Amino acid sequence: MQTLVVLGSVMMFLAVALGAFGAHALKRKLSADMVKIYETGVQYHIAHGLGIILLGLFANQLPSSSLVMTAGWLLFAGIIIFSGSLYTLSITGVRKWGAVTPLGGIAFLAGWITLLFAAL
User: Fold this and answer.
1) I need a surface site. Which of 27, 39, 108, 120 has the fewest CB within 10 A?
2) What angle do CA 74, 9, 78 make, to 5 degrees?
3) SS3 per-residue string spanning 11-76
4) Average pLDDT, 10 consecutive residues per value, the chain (120 residues)
5) For the chain, how long is the longest CA-to-CA vector?
């Protein structure tokens, strides 16, 4: 489960870096609407990065470690797809990226439901 702790730590590093980048470099260049979209990406990135770390820390206490690993990878995919599409949408202004975002949301939901099954 060390993999999940490492992966989550990398995700958190990137979330903080991207959050700072958005706050300092993008805030003056993007519209208020696009800044809000970017910030939503950062919020979900942080929440699920922490989730990945917690999965790694507590995985050995759950009955199915393979399901915990799967849940962690689904949360990772959610960060890449959900947050990544929001970052791309806000920076490029190409609204079609908004159609990708729900796929990341589905990955988040799948990760959390997988964790539920791992706990049962």
Assistant:
1) 120
2) 20
3) HHHHHHHHHHHHHHHHCCCCCHHHHHHHHHHHHHHHHHHHHHHHHHHHHHHCCCHHHHHHHHHHHH
4) 95 98 93 97 98 94 90 98 98 97 98 95
5) 49
